[in-house]
Write a structure and sequence with these properties.
Blueprint lengths: L3 H34 L3 H25 L4 H31 L4 H28 L7 E3 L3 H17 L4 H19 L4 E3 L12 H4 L1 H11 L1 H27 L10
Length: 258
């Protein structure tokens, strides 16, 4: 008998796993929006980070199993738009709307414009990534990756909620962080992707010890440490670019010789 149907069934079964992980990313992005609407901003921030975990797993599982498909890539991109584009923008906007009424309609407009700018930047970032995926250098991302941008916004809102950061300065800072994260996503700055590091690559024992230290710090104060980590990563590319520009600047010549 022809064994092809059994083989086809097995391959279809394998395809389910990465797409289920992508659905998990989509679910937690959607849940972050619902939690923010209900005023549970700590849960909303956590949900964005859980979505990041699922997003990191789905592609790796698909590559390990040899089940990468065009459908999976498109589905992943759409899930990313919800989890790392719409969710952080709406979480930040909902957090600000609960406090911005007393400062007038103008600040409300500034809030939704900043939130929309972030969402639009995430959409353009994902579209640019998909359009250039075949030719781009895998070692670097052009522009801040959308999950990292989402982490910055979600961690800030989570941090502001935990420490009761209120008042007009807090609102301006929240919307400025959101708009800046959006601007970095569509920038030309190069960010390390770390995809050139193989999973089985040997590393020094001292470097490996950094991992449990980071997890321990996150456990001590999740929103503060996560905001610091992803904020530092976001600033790394602009600072490297600025450092290189300063080094290339021609030094003033000494006085002329007779």
């Amino acid at each position: 008998m022809n064994p092809e149907p059994a083989s086809t069934t097995t391959r279809r079964g394998i395809y389910v796993l990465p797409n289920l992980l992508t659905t998990g990313c989509l679910f937690f992005g959607f849940y972050a929006i619902i939690a923010a609407i209900d005023g549970n901003f700590a849960r909303a921030g956590i949900a964005v980070f859980v979505a990041m975990v699922f997003d990191g797993l789905d592609g790796r599982v698909a590559r390990l199993m040899g089940t990468e498909t065009h459908f999976g890539k498109e589905y992943d991109s759409l899930a990313d738009m919800v989890a790392f584009g719409l969710a952080p923008a709406l979480v930040c906007y909902q957090w600000g709307m609960a406090r911005i009424v007393e400062y007038g309609a103008a600040w409300g407009r500034f809030g939704w414009i900043a939130a929309f700018f972030y969402a639009a930047a995430a959409a353009m970032r994902l579209a640019r990534f998909n359009a250039r995926a075949a030719t781009a250098d895998k070692r670097y991302f052009e522009g801040l990756p959308s999950p990292s941008a989402a982490a910055i916004v979600a961690a800030f809102v989570w941090l502001a909620h935990e420490y009761a950061i209120e008042g007009l300065p807090g609102l301006v800072l929240a919307f400025s962080v959101t708009a800046s994260a959006g601007a970095l996503m569509v920038s030309r700055f190069s960010y390390r992707s770390f995809k050139d590091r193989a999973a089985g690559e040997q590393v020094r024992y001292s470097r490996f010890l950094v991992v449990p230290v980071v997890f321990a710090l996150i456990a001590l104060n999740p929103p503060l440490v996560l905001f610091g980590l992803f904020g530092s990563f976001a600033l790394s590319a602009p600072l490297v670019w600025l450092w290189r520009r300063l080094r290339r600047r021609p030094r003033p010549q000494d006085g002329g010789h007779g």
